[in-house]
Amino acid sequence: MLDDAGLQALREAALLSPDNLPLRRHLAGLLLEKGYLAEAETEYRAALMLAPKDVDLTTGLAEVFVRQSAHGSALAALEPFLASPGYPPRLGVIAARALLGEGDPGRAAYRYHEAVSRDPSVGDPGLAARLALPPLQAPAASHPAAAPTGSPYGTPPPAAPPYGTAAYGTAAPHSGAPGGGEVERSGVTFADVAGMEAVKEALRVKLLLPLQQPELFAAFGKRAGGGVLLYGPPGAGKTHLARAAAGELGASFVNVGLADILDMYIGSSERNLRATFELARRSRPCVLFFDEVDALAARRSDMRQAHNRQLVNQFLAELDGVDQNANEGVLVLAATNVPWYIDVAFRRPGRLDRPVFVPPPDTAARAAILRILCRDKPLAEMDFDAVARITEHFVGADLKGVVDRAVEAKLHQSISAGRPIPLTTADMVAAARSTKPTAVREWMSTARNYVMHANESGAWDELMPWIKGNRW
Question: Residue 228 forms beta bridges with which residues?
Answer without folding.
Answer: 333, 354
